[in-house]
Amino acid sequence: MAAGSLRGEIRLPSDKSIGHRALLFNAMASGSAEVSLSRPGADVLSTLEALRLLGAVEAVEERYGSVLVTLRGAGGPGAAQLPAGGGERIECGNSGTTMRLLCGALAGRPGVSPIELFGDVSLSSRPMERVAGPLRAMGAEVVTTDGHAPLRVFGRRPLRRMHHDLRVASAQVLGAITVAALTADGTTTIDTPAETRDHTERLLAWLGAPVRREGTRTTIEGPAGMQARSLTVPGDLSSAAAWLVAAALHPDAELRLPGVSLNPTRMAIVDVLREMGADIRVVSGDTSRESAGAPSSASPEPFGDLIVRSATSLRPISLRGHLVASLIDELPLIAVAMAGANGVSELRDAAELRVKESDRIAQVVRHLVAMGVDAEELPDGWRLTGGRRSRPVPLAVATGGDHRIGIAFAVAALSGSSGEATIDQPACVDVSYPGFWDDLESISGPVRASAGAGAVR
Fold first, then answer.
1. pLDDT for 222 beyond 90
2. Which of 43, 329, 402, 439 is catalytic?
């Protein structure tokens, strides 16, 4: 059953997408910088450990509840590159971002031995030719294992300038090619079929690299270097999505989420939930007015506070086309919101969900049906008929180790969309949201956990 009320303030972990890039790009820059991370998840720690093996990390310390990483970049004024030391085999854990961005960064590293990038069973099942192919076209030598990890990357410099027409709107693939293009001789352009997150372009430009984004085209002038700069990584909007959905569905909720990234290419989750009828306010650092926070010289990213209250009711929604790529991480949570809306909702053009940590389309539909929702699996999404059920049923959530599935269906139980939910691998949420269960308890009450299973009621 749902918690009696959801009230309080939650300080979120640092944004995962920005955290990866802040560490990696400073390691490729000239000079030293400090990156401050709040509760970095397992994925970001995979990037941190990779950079430690390569010799870019000078110190890691805890300070005021955050992790402060000091990096010394190996790049020069006109040449971005990673250090040449150590790291013949680098484990990327479950992190596709770590593997793909490192592949691009290592592709243009000259005169060093090949480096093998490997990961867990889930990461080893994800497609890697989508990044290896474009890098090979630039002159890099990248060897995959039947199109998957492990990868072997041989440093080559200079790489060739290219025009790339990507088939998939993937910020990870775009980012890998972009960092490789910093070592190419001339202008590289990359076109994507839909808008993707622009964290790579924002951060590289802020560090002084000649990179720009115009619509769905990214342009890089190489060869180029950049200057390391210290920054504090804002809160993760994908983590915030859990509480936005939970509060919108709950009959007695008011939550404040301070210091969250408000990157325009990530705000689709707020826009979609508002369209469904959610009561969400965006407040900048100046709390006297409602607006998105603005980037400053101290940060390449806008940030501010989110306030969410119970919705009177939620409306169904149909999602397809270019919008889907910008919502890819939040789609399991949106499915839970759809289940609480009155009417038929549909998701299309989301086949990418099938090659994430699990087949998230199959997972979402299977658990929604177990909740009593009339849900149908489509090749590239789902169709479901939502509405609150008078007798929520207990739910056993087999996550397959997928953090997004665990969080989504914990939220379903918390908000009353299902009965008590038992999560089979509660620790899997640490990949993106360490401290999730503590935050849940802080706004709702105790969560039971035993023998590797967590229960939310």
1. yes
2. 329
